[in-house]
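[Q] Does anyone have a clean structure-token version of this?
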Amino acid sequence: MPLAVKPTGAATPVKVAPGGKAWVKLTFVQVQGEGDGYCVSGSTPVIHPTMVVRLPGSGAHQVALDEAQFTECDDTVTVTAVSRVQPY
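[A] Here you go.
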């Protein structure tokens, strides 16, 4: 199931040299508790096995996740504008 995307920050073109880096920060509503967990909002936590990130002009890229899946609440991801500076 696709997540709703909530963009933040001003979008400006970012040129990346071959082999260079650019960053984008993705933020999800955190699942609370241990094991089965729960969502503060009352929604049911959703497990996603993978993620596909699309950037204008660069096609789609499959993102490998360290833990092989991620769990989030409320079906929304907040996304910063692409930057040459690594976000905190």
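[Q] Thanks! Anything notable?
[A] Residues 44 and 50 are 18 Å apart (CA to CA).
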